[in-house]
Design a protein that fits this description.
- The complex is a heterodimer of chains A (113) and B (117).
- Chain A has 113 residues and is an all-beta fold.
- Chain A is 0% helix and 51% strand.
- Chain A contains no helices and 13 strands.
- In chain A, the strands form three sheets. In chain A, strands 2, 6, 7, 8, 11, 12 and 13 form a seven-stranded mixed beta sheet that branches.
- The N and C termini of chain A lie far apart (36 Å).
- The relative contact order of chain A is 0.34.
- Chain B has no helices and eleven strands.
- In chain B, the strands form two sheets. In chain B, strands 2, 4, 5, 6, 9, 10 and 11 form a seven-stranded mixed beta sheet that branches.
- The chains are: A mainly beta (113), B mainly beta (117).
């Protein structure tokens, strides 16, 4: 199984400041035949299902604000929120869809400082 | 606009079978990954399993002996069965559909399933 490890587990950032969440996979999720990283980022608010933010490691889902960006390749990935807004308070998960069993990171709780 | 509406029993006794169904509204029903994901109280997301566009099923190894995912294209729905449940299976269960390979994009509203004697 591919183990996804996120850091930090929790993060407090001031409004308007940058938030950075890291995700490391135990093996590469880069598929060589199409050069795509099978890595997604989700945002989950209390009482709601997760919402897809980023797929292919860096492609923003339609409707997601451009302050959200994803980067990285292979085994190391980052989700960046360039200017934190109050509505960004949530838990964020990375997810590999490279191979079954699909796995998620343990989550990073993002709060306002 | 794709919408997933899930339903099923929310309270089970130990050893019973969990049965959930997800109705799909909008979009094509063919050519995607259909997944179930659960979230135990206060914890993260756990992939239960999926069935893909070719009918291939994959399950979480920790649940494999107890889980079955099926699709009924004529009814535009897919289902989850988990046998011999215990308290450890208490969780919110989500159905989801992929659009970008297997990454879930559209999610059901979630169903809290509680296992208690």
């Amino acid at each position: 199984d591919i183990v996804m490890t996120q850091s930090p587990e929790s993060l407090a950032v001031s409004l308007g400041e940058r938030a950075t969440i890291n995700c490391k996979s135990s093996q590469s999720v880069l598929y060589s035949s199409n050069n795509k990283d099978y890595l997604a980022w989700y945002q989950q608010k209390p009482g709601q299902p997760p919402k897809l933010l980023i797929y292919w490691a860096s492609t923003r889902e339609s409707g997601v604000p451009d302050r959200f960006s994803g980067s990285g390749s292979g085994t190391d990935f980052t989700l960046t929120i360039s200017s934190l807004q109050a509505e960004d308070v949530a838990v964020y998960y990375c997810h590999q869809y490279y191979s079954p069993p699909r796995t998620f990171g343990q989550g990073t709780k993002l709060e306002i400082k | 606009q794709v919408q997933l509406q899930q339903w099923g029993a929310g309270l089970l006794k130990p050893s019973e079978t969990l049965s959930l169904t997800c109705d799909v509204y909008g979009g094509s029903f063919i050519g995607y990954y259909w997944s179930w994901i659960r979230q135990r109280p206060g914890t993260g997301l756990e992939w239960v399993g999926e069935i893909n566009y070719s009918g291939t099923r994959d399950y979480n190894p920790s649940l494999k002996s107890r889980v079955t995912i099926s699709v009924d294209t004529s009814k535009k729905q897919f289902s989850l069965k988990l046998t011999s449940v215990t308290a450890a299976d208490t969780a919110v269960y989500y159905c989801a559909r992929g659009r970008v390979a297997a990454a879930p994009v559209y999610w059901g509203q979630g169903t809290l399933v509680t296992v208690s004697s």
